[in-house]
Amino acid sequence: MIKFLLPYISKYKKDVVWASLTIAIAAATSLWQPKLLQQVIQAIADDELSKMYPLGIQLIVIALIGLAAGALNTVFSARIAMGTAADIRADEYKKIQTFSFGNIERFSTGSLVVRMTNDVQQVQTIVMAFFQSLLRVPILFVGALVLALTTLPQLWWVILVMVILVVLISMGVFQPMGKLFGSVQGWIEKTNNMAKENLQGVRVVKSFNQEKNEEERFDDASTQLTNINIKIGYLFGILMPAFFLIGEIAIAVSILFVGRNITSDPQMLGALTSFVNYLLQIMNAIVMAGFMMTFAARGMESAKRIMEVMDTEPDLTFDAAAPSEALSGDVEFDHVSFAYPGDDAPVLKDVSFKVKQGEMIGIVGATGSGKSTLAQLIPRLYDPTEGSVKVGNEDLRHVNEKSLRNAVAFVLQKAILFSGKISDNLRQGKSNAGRPDMVRAAKMAQASEFIEKYDDDYEHIVEERSSNFSGGQKQRLSITRGVIGEPAVLILDDSTSALDARSEKLVQEALDKQLSDTTKFVIAEKISSVINADRIFVMEDGELIATGKHHELVENSPAYREIYETQKAQEVID
Ligand SMILES: Nc1ncnc2c1ncn2[C@@H]1O[C@H](COP(=O)(O)OP(=O)(O)OP(=O)(O)O)[C@@H](O)[C@H]1O
After folding, report:
1. pLDDT tens for each residue of 257-269
2. In the chain, where the domains are located
3. Which residues cross the membrane (predicted)?
4. Contact, 42 vs 292, CB < 8 A?
């Protein structure tokens, strides 16, 4: 953890120096106070009231210096802790941006969110605690020990017994507490995921009347989290009274052994008072060290989880040396097989085809046959396990990332828009798009009619999770974003499913006419959506079992004929 944190903390060298200095001053003042108190008591005992004033003033000044040093230390520690946390969060976010789909799926989005928020918060807490107690613990411990021993050396054994007892109890309590803190993180992640899933799927929850079930599921996880926190509370509950008891017994024993000397030796009263003070400071230092270790255990767990993210190599990187170029719309799969990362079963098996620029390809097949998977390899969301994928006659492993992103637009069935304005979302497809580009693209996607009804048309707000648009509207906006950059290759993955038949036909006609040079892959459930395609690919269990025009396939491919006839019969029933 130290190796991980050091480069971050070393950015705040000046604050580290100031935090250390101020805490050393604060610790020194708390060691000085009992000595002054001893002198005050001595002055009272000696009836030397003239000494009282300067001593009283000294006490107040020391207390004020201690207070100011403590306050300043909090400021410097907070600057280090918050700065470090912000830098880690930014680096983690940057790292996650380099992740492939596979990387993100392996962590799960919920886990990545907790690792970027709650775990960073834990690290921030430990850094803060560290700088607030960094020098305080050793200075207090050694200082109070030496001062106690010089004040009443005959009571060395009281100190020894107390230190042994406090250390033993600390070890017994802080160790299980550290373990419990570790498991708290896992349960926070689980409850966060549950809350996220429930809120995102709130329509399903409500329409299937699942509120009660969801509540129970959440309650179970939340109860587990509560139970762990209660156990931590119990341990704290034992810890504090145990320490107080040890402290009180140590004080009582000290008084018992030297108290009777007070009448014969008046100096003994002041010495005893300051000894007792130092005893408490020694105990304080050990307890603080225990807390630090527990915090460190929790922070370590979080730092480990952050480091896992930072140490993950993106399993798909683009060739930085590849030159930027305008790729043509030719697409080729050469004996491509593919299994999802972490899965052995191939989802695509030895798929080969060549598509010429400007062709329109329909892709049909049963659900789970591998249509979307095939499409995802074209913008290189994954690399094939075997074989190669080429766009513009270039193997994607040797293509410049920007060139590929400019060449291939992918429109998903589940339209995802970002909060902001419609225009912001469209500019994701073409960064310098002006209003005429937007109007032209929206017309192609049959989106202009509804966008232009808004007073602020293309500047209309997209709310979080695009909740102010219907499913069909979202799909149209998503298609608009896909076509606005006039890509060399356009993939529509079931992305007209929420459009009525007439709108779907209009979109296809517009794409045919206005994007005639663009290669189009249209994945469709209904054959009627791709009946006019230049070629139709038929997928079955990850294999490309037939290709051809509609009438050819009806004649030559029994699998295609079966799908077609089933759908035709269904249409008659409908
Ligand atoms: N991210 C993933 N990780 C692991 N397996 C996956 C993943 N996505 C899909 N699969 C599996 O790959 C197979 C092919 O899925 P794919 O989504 O490509 O099929 P599809 O033909 O597009 O289906 P549909 O018509 O239902 O969209 C399925 O068996 C599916 O379970």
Report:
1. 887 777 777 677 7
2. 2-310, 331-573
3. 16-32, 52-72, 125-149, 155-174, 232-258, 278-297
4. no
